[in-house]
Amino acid sequence: MDKKLTYADSGVDIHQEESTIGNLTGDMTYTREGLGAPMTSIGHYAGLMDFGDFALAMATDGVGSKVLIANEMEKWDTMGIDCIAMNVNDLIAIGAEPISFVDYLAIEKHSDEFARQIGVGLAKGAEISRMSILGGETATLPEIVKGFDLAGTCLGKVDKDAIITGEKVAEGDVLVGVPSSGVHSNGYTLVRKIIENSKYSYHDPLPYDSSRTIGEELLTPTRIYMEVLDTIRKCEVHGLAHITGSGLLKLRRVSELGFDITDPIEPPEIFRFLQKEGNVEELEMYRTFNMGMGFLLIVPPHEAQKVAEIVDGKIVGRITEKDIRVKDLIIE
After folding, report:
1. DSSP string, 98-109
2. Which of 148, 152, 130, 131 shows the shortest CA–CA distance to 139?
3. Which residues contact 182 (CB under 8 A, 6 or more apart)?
4. Which runs of consecutive H residues, i.e. helices, occur in 13-62?
5. Are residues 184 and 124 part of one domain?
6. What does the record list as GO biological process (predicted)?
7. Mapped to the 3 state alphabet, what secondary structure does 252-320 carry?
8. Contact predicate 90/45, CB 8 Å
9. Which of residues 120, 140, 162 is at a domain's end?
10. Is residue 184 located within the same domain as residue 234?
11. Are residues 279 and 187 in the same domain?
């Protein structure tokens, strides 16, 4: 493959998405007052509402086009973990504890075994997240959905004095990265384009690990970062970032200051395999994928080593005046 692939080439333009979101939310100006009044503007990882002595947090997300690989492999038992992880990790990124979840499953047709496997994953994700699934909705939409789509909404709570929005982030703060379990649930439109235009299929063994197929590796479920929630109760933390779609550009949800990542976590081999097969530039990799770092904590220097040990993470850099940098790359 001679052409250098980008996320936009595969059909997902993150800058166009920003424009769409701006147009979508532009007229959302009405806000409730009193109990339930919003405490954050649209655009952070999760929305917060005033609920007296504490705040309620809400997030909603889905698995995305990773479901197409699950269909190809006929393996759906991790999709529920992915769905819950994408929501729970966004709650954690604002300091909130997940307490309940509802799912939305849209399907083309019914299958008992498929439904059982989706339920297995949802149950496991809820158990890891220490929360209940209260219900959900299943819709049969053969004229709209080809295959299935799985999404959900998560409710959490946080004491008002424990909310972490990033406003305390300051120059000199230390960045602690926490490893990902792999590609997680983002960038799969580009992932699929790479594999489906290569000499490989999802059923082929990984070139670097013949004990697993490419499809099995790509279906590794998203890590749920509950240890981060436990850490912020013990340590001073100024900011949190869940690294998902658009990669390190997600750090702009936390602060407009600079993030100088001088010693990044070494990306798992799956990322280098995808990069090579798709002829994807390093800059594009870091603004599309998590590249081995699924979560980031921003802490004062005196807490850095302690935090890194608790989350089994790594000090990867510092907060600076401007720019998001990974070694000599500027992510923009």
Report:
1. EEEEEEEEEESS
2. 148
3. 217, 218, 220, 268, 270
4. 14-25
5. no
6. 'de novo' IMP biosynthetic process; adenine biosynthetic process
7. HHCCCCEEEECCCCCCCHHHHHHHHHHCCCHHHHHCCCCCCEEEEEEECHHHHHHHHHHCCCEEEEEEE
8. yes
9. 162
10. yes
11. yes
The domain spanning residue 156 has which CATH number? 3.30.1330.10
Task: Dig out the tokens for 56 from the structure.
Answer: 């309620």
Assigned token pair, 190: 């580009």
The rounded distance, in Å, linking the Cα atoms of 292 and 181 is: 7
User: Hey, is 47 helix, strand or coil?
Assistant: strand
Number of domains in the chain: 2
Nearest alpha-carbon partner for 96 in 41, 160, 147, 38: 160
Q: How many residues does this entry show for the chain? A: 332
Which residues lie below 8 Å from residue 117, measured CB to CB, with a gap of 6+? 75, 76, 77, 79
Sequence-separated (6 or more) residues with CB below 8 Å from residue 152: 60, 61, 62, 83, 84, 87, 101, 102, 103, 104, 136
Determine, yes or no, domain membership for 207. yes
Residue 219, domain member (yes or no): yes
> 56 - beta bridge partners?
49, 157
Q: Which of 328, 323, 35, 2 is nearest to 171 (CA)?
A: 323
Residue-wise pLDDT tens digits, 102-133: 999 999 999 999 999 999 999 999 999 999 99
What are the C-alpha distances in Å from 143 to residues 109, 140, 146?
10, 9, 8
Q: What is the pTM of this model?
A: 0.93
**Boundary residue ending a domain (136, 162, 188):** 162
Residues 185 and 150 in one domain: no
Give tens-digit pLDDT for 265-296: 999 999 999 999 999 999 999 999 999 999 99
Locus of tokens 């008002």: 160
209 with 320, same domain: the answer is yes
